[in-house]
Amino acid sequence: MSIDLKTIKHISKLSRVSVDDQKAEKLANDLNSIFKFIEKLNELKTDKVEPLTSVAETSLKLRSDEVKSNNIREQIVKNSPQDNEDYFVVPKVIE
Amino acid sequence: MSKNKSEYLISRKDNQYEVVIGLEVHAQVTSESKLFSTSSTKFGAEPNTQVSLVDAAFPGMLPVINEFCVKQAIKTGIGLNAKINKRSVFDRKNYFYADLPQGYQISQFKDPIVGEGNVILDMPDGQKKVGIERLHLEQDAGKSIHDLDPQNTFVDLNRSGVALMEIVSKPDLRSPEEVSVYIKKLRSIMRYLGTCDGNMQEGSLRADVNVSVRIKGSKDLGTRCEIKNVNSIKFMQMAIEYEANRQVDLIEEGNSIDQETRLFDTKKNETRSMRSKEDAHDYRYFPDPDLLPLEVSDEFINKLKSDIPELPDDKKKRFIDEFKLSPYEANILVSDIDTAKYFEEVVAKMGKNKDIKLAVNWITGELFAVLNSKNIEISQSPISAKNLAILINLIKNGTISGKIAKTVFELMIDGNKDPQKIVEEKGLKQQSDPKALEALIDKIINDNREKAVEYKQGKEKLFGFFVGQAMKASGGKANPQLINEILKKKL
Amino acid sequence: MSDITKQSLSELVKNIKNKKVSSEEITKEFVNRSEKSKELNVYITENYSSALDKAKKFDQKPNLDLKLPGIPIAVKDLFCTKDIRTTAGSKILNNFVPTYESTVTQNIWNEGAVLLGKLNCDEFAMGSSNETSFFGNVQNPIDKNLVPGGSSGGSASAVAGQLTPITIGTDTGGSIRQPASFTGIVGLKPTYGSCSRYGIVAFASSLDQAGPMAQNVKDCALLQEVISTYDSKDSTSINFKRNEYSKELTNNIKGKKIGIPKEYRVDGMPKEIEDLWQKGINYAKDCGAEIIDISLPHTSYALPTYYIVAPAEASSNLARYDGVKYGFRAKGENLIDMYEKTRSEGFGAEVQRRIMIGTYVLSSGYYDAYYLKAQKVRKLIKNDFNEAYKKVDAILTPSTPSAAFKIGEKKDDPVSMYLNDIFTVPVNLAGLPGISIPAGHDSKGYPLGLQIIGKAFDEQNILNIAYAMEEKIDFKNKTTDWWIK
Q1: Which band of pLDDT confidence, cut at 50, 70 and 90, is reported for residue B1?
Q2: Which of C54, C67, C76, C455 is catalytic?
Q3: Is position C256 annotated as part of the catalytic site?
Q4: CA–CA dist C172, C156 (Å, integer)
Q5: Per the domain annotation, does A70 fall within a domain?
């Protein structure tokens, strides 16, 4: 298997990381060597193996339906890159 | 079950097309706090005031599931006659959007909490069973506001993380009318259960509508388009009509249909392609490693089953059996839980000697008219069920006539007054004393001798005249039955 | 007391309790030494003046019943600390100041400790040499231009260089044990679910675990007993009976069965590592333990499995760094442009590489072949351990396949870098506790570590074995304070 530049561009789009041609080339090389090493898993037959869902052998605990978090808007928007007291602000979205 | 007498078909030249519709309904779970965080779900708060560190996806914040939301989903599943899955898994659906702070939505993909079920629709030509594919729990996203600023989009995360139930139907619906009945029925069931308030204006209930068309009689499904996030029944119906016709036109012109996501433009009344969604189709679902599989026991499910109230289908059946209502009347009374509650309270308050038929007529007639004209819900009715019951009993026991009752009803609207008191205060009590009425009638006959003679000579129409005179003389309070009897005797 | 920074945690606590020294004096000494140790580059954010203030406050009203009374501690910059910048070693969080505290650090402050500063680490804990940090390399106190290991490289160097008496790191595939081994200190990765993940910047949620790093096993046990608590804010936190590890610590391990897995004798393993392992086996025998040969047949599949699972989870965990709510934002013409530029400029090369791997293995058409397959193999690896633990109480292996290497040596070869974690990764995949203790030196005098792997929730047992072996090994770190000017 080989990961080509088209694939790199596709996954960079999915992961929202811009990648120019030079970077794509480097990434393709790196990923190919990493996947060569990952392909070792193909040696194993796993048809009848149940996948692991969690190493924590316990079931999901449920919390009660109580409102505990109050209005902390100041804290919430404090770190946002574009200042606004009420909202998070992002460049215009075109639907 | 369906008799298909009134099929919805689209005709072009020699071809007749059938429309195939499936819905993904997003219903907001009624709960105090969000699905995975402890912030409030209340509608209409100031922007970003109901946002916790978890909702805004701050580094190191983790989801902890709300038990009540799990119960609500299971209850809804029970109401949809569906299989409850004792083990379900939360997955991450990965995509980027300004109002999706985590960069993924926690949802259920392979193992939903509720499996297959069904809903019965009452159509004019009989009942129709619509299959439910599944119901799963997921987080709602925040809200992007595009019109506050020309350069920027503003994001409000108050809704981010609120619990939603996605209810996926099988492609069993065949017309805009069926879609309307289906949504109303779902809404009705969830309101009975208290699992979703069904308020479409506030966005508590919205749907993605999958539409495809095929030549009538064909067994294969056509290529479908998904119309995203439609938030009223009317718009769903309009969108389906438009979309089905668009697809038929394409086929008739020899074109094929692209499977795509579309948007319903409510101003232009048309659907259009949502290009922004196109490259986001690879959601890279995988089990959320911050959560473990959700496991519920038989006891947990059985306890919820035992708490399920009587649902619309059962209530309707009981109303027909117990109160001898027609299926039509029963439908009207059970479709909304508040109407059903009101009706049952009236019935209870009427006591032993009750007139159900009269109660149904008054609720569906006078009361509905008032609610309509005031544009309010029955839960806000200006006349309490108790007072309406008293009024109906006053008619039933002859204290007032039906006509006077209408006057009393008008007076009750302002301030929910006790009809008994109104009758007493205004002296509207029916005159049922035969002696007094005889005297009154004697006087009328005396005053109208000529007419009395004409009547006796066979001009029977004049009977009405005497009744009218008697009622007038009594100020409308005379017992009409007694008047009739006495007049017949005297004339 | 001039040798304050050389004292172990236990000694410092004893001296504070006996009023031989004040919190302020101790804190001052660690601050002074830290100030003189800038060349090690262990701090991302210093908190010295606030630490001194807190130390003074402690002295005014000392509560000597606490477990860490007035002890200054620097922590890995992956733990969110209230009102103190938290970067995860990344440009994308360069200016991020949390308004909340992680559960693990809160537990430390609750026991009287004060925060000295935030320690350098690989960006988002992705790395084995601390070379991926936006804030630069960390120097290993052992030798100039030597990597301290990673990702808790700053933490390891800070303890080895005596800039903090103890510290906490996080371990996803070896990030506590490998740097502990490279710097000649003790590092414990607890059982998954033992320490809360609340408030720790996530790398791979199903593998991440916080743990103590210290000069000796006893200090490690004490810190573990402080940080390990059940936390309802973390759905994967497990409610089990937690020991008072330091109180119950014993060097009596007579009759304990210790397994030696043959699969860890990997091809091309340096002779010094093989010798170290044999030395370890002999020490264990000397302590009265019984040595048993065991097999963990799927060991060689652990690293490939890890390099699917960890990047997959990371690609999703790091989606929240999008320039919208906090952290770095690049200018963009529209939302998507902003996202792509922010993440391309905000994340370093290794993080981007792992996001790409993770996105790829989860993407449509590849999920079954990679992610699902990896979760199945993970099950097989876990089953291997379950089988082994029917026969033995603990497992002894080397911590790393080599001693520390030079800065830059492996930077351009990701696979050779990844091989560093070959002995530590299986432990994370199976959710087990593992401890690395310093056990010897290579030919250049660089420290080498041994790893003891326990059953789930059996931290006490591996701490005891480590404690007993530590006594026999009598390891001395060969540091020269070369960086102090």
Answers
A1: very low
A2: C76
A3: no
A4: 15
A5: no
Specify if A61 maps to a domain: no
Which of B46, B51, B160 should we substitute to test contact with A (largest number of A Cβ atoms within 10 Å)?
B51
| Residue contact A44–C377, C-beta within 8 A | yes
Minimal-distance CA residue of chain A relative to B96:
A16
**What number is the ipTM of this complex?**
0.97
Q: Look at A87 and B98 and tell me if their CB atoms are within 8 Å.
A: no
The CATH number of C4-263+270-296+384-473, from 3.60.15.10, 3.40.50.620, 3.40.50.800, 3.90.1300.10, is 3.90.1300.10
Among C86, C325, C334, C373, which would you mutate to test the B interface (most chain B Cβ atoms within 10 Å of its Cβ)? Answer: C325
In C196-220, which positions are buried (b, 16+ CB within 10 angstroms) versus exposed (e)?
bbbbbbbbbbbbbbbbbbbbbbbbb
User: What residue ranges do the domains of chain C occupy?
Assistant: 4-263+270-296+384-473
Does the pLDDT at position C46 exceed 80?
A: yes
Distance between CA atoms of B321 and B313, rounded to whole angstroms? Answer: 13
State yes or no: pLDDT of C142 exceeds 80: yes
Question: How does pLDDT run across B49-66, given as a tens digit for each residue?
Answer: 999 999 999 999 999 999
CATH number of the domain where residue A37 is located:
1.10.20
pLDDT tens per residue across span B347-385? 999 998 889 999 999 999 999 999 999 999 999 999 999
Specify whether the backbone of B415 is left (phi greater than 0), alpha (psi in -120 to 50) or beta. left
> How many pairs of residues across B and C have Cβ atoms under 8 Å apart?
96
Q: What is the mean pLDDT of residues B294-307?
A: 97
What residues 17-56 of chain A have any CB closer than 8 A to a CB of chain C? 17-19, 27, 30-31, 33-34, 37-41, 43-44, 46, 49-56
For position B480, what pLDDT does the model report?
A: 78
The residue ranges of every structural domain in chain B are 9-305, 310-426, 434-490
- Greater model confidence, B280 or C241: C241
Decide yes or no: CATH 3.40.50.10800 for domain B434-490.
no
Which of C193, C304, C353 shows the shortest C-beta gap to A27? C353
* pLDDT value for B320: 96
Provide the domain count of chain A. Answer: 1
In-domain check, residue A74: no
User: Average pLDDT of C316-344?
Assistant: 96
Q: pLDDT tens digits for B150-171?
A: 899 999 999 999 999 999 999 9
Task: Identify the pLDDT of residue B280.
Answer: 52
10 Å Cβ neighbour count for C175? Answer: 37
Count CB neighbours of B474 within 10 A.
Answer: 18
Cβ burial of C156 (10 Å; 0-12, 13-18, 19+) is buried
The residue segments making up the domain with residue A15 are 5-43
- With CA atoms as reference, report the closest residue to B272 among B228, B232, B235, B212: B228
Is A83 contained in some domain?
Answer: no
| Residue C399 falls in the annotated catalytic set | no
